[in-house]
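Regression test attached.
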Amino acid sequence: MNLYHYASPSTFYPLAGKLVPWFAALAFILTTAGLYISFFMAPTDFQQGEGYRIIFIHVPAAWMSMFIYVVMAFWSAIGLAWNTRLSFVMARALAPTGAMFTFVALWTGAFWGKPMWGAWWVWDARLTSELILLFLYVGVMALQAAIDDPRRSDRAGALLNLVGVINVPIIYFSVKWWNTLHQGSSLSLTRAPSMAQTMLWGMLILALAAWMYTIAVALARARTLILERERRTEWARAQLEGQA
Amino acid sequence: MLKFLFTVIRRDVLLAARRRGDWLTAQFFFVMVVSMFPLGVGPEPGMLRTIGPGVVWVAALLASLLSLGRLFADDYRDGTLEQMLLSPYPNTLLALGKAIAHWIINGIPLLVIAPVLGIQFNLPAEALWILVLSLAIGTPILSLLGSIGAALTLGLRGGGALVTLLILPLYVPALIFGAGAVEGVLSGTGSEAHLSLLGAFLMMSLLLAPWVSAMALKVSVE
């Protein structure tokens, strides 16, 4: 199989169309299984009570939020280096999902923080850097949205994305040191190292579900982006007429 | 090569000197934003001293963003920028020169005004000195990173607000280390660690930012 074959939008489009239902189905099955394990099988935490179950959503969302930004940067770098249209499409298709997961991580974090710490928000290093990550996502999407010319929009977004990915570790450490120097961090996110086996399984399955969901959504979004950009080509017209 | 760099810097500084109105706006903006804070939070000296470094630094970020809109825009509108990009010299030098000029025009005046504003916030003499030092290391970072944002948003509608959105998150480390250095003097933990980290961030920005902003200029102009 030749991977380069699928680097062309006209061949990638039908491939993505075939893959989307599979990933969507996997996402659905894994989400159902993961939620069942985490809500009915996992034992109640003896320190945190039932409220701890928020982490089953929170942790996978937080993982995805960071991971997607790096994947976007990867596609941006490939696109800038080899000038491949599809890489830019992928980077762009991933951005809203990444922003969504970042928001979910912050939101569920607030819900978890209220009963556990007694505060919706603390200026903890992880919370602050996650908030700045959301700002970075918003920046990339705002820049892409502001430029009408798709070529310029792709490249500008990709450059900003790469600058952002270099900055993420710097921001993380600066926030961490700022936090430790300002106030003796009375609240720490590090929990007891040992976790019940079922809890771990629930979390891992939901993390996998988040992966599948991201792939499905990104591919579906990439398909619409391709169709929009290639609307003047013959194969895209044939596609559109076939659907109508 | 160096001659080209100096020409770019000299030209921008000269243009700013001839149009003092534009240039003074950002400086007065800085002074006014800082002066609003005591009115908002109350004149209690202890509290002012606590928030002082942060307020001056945040105002410096905003003042730097305010003037970024004109970094490339005027040259872009009359076609000069395109000619400069076509010149046989590397575009990275052009971007570097522009950023340095932006710092001379907008950064250095902030250093001069900052101690006066620090006195308003009841900062002791030692902290004032560190405030100036932290701004001296930090404001070039703002100009360098800002030049990336200015290049990316060249000629876009609503470019000013957009630059803020893109660049403010990237300014976070500079803000933390800069304000942290002054904070360190006030709380007695010292400021060297913060200043060293700020210096490291400056070195990295100096290395990478002109290069990225030259690429961004090419993307925006072509």
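Expected vs. actual: identical. Chain B has a mean pLDDT of 90.
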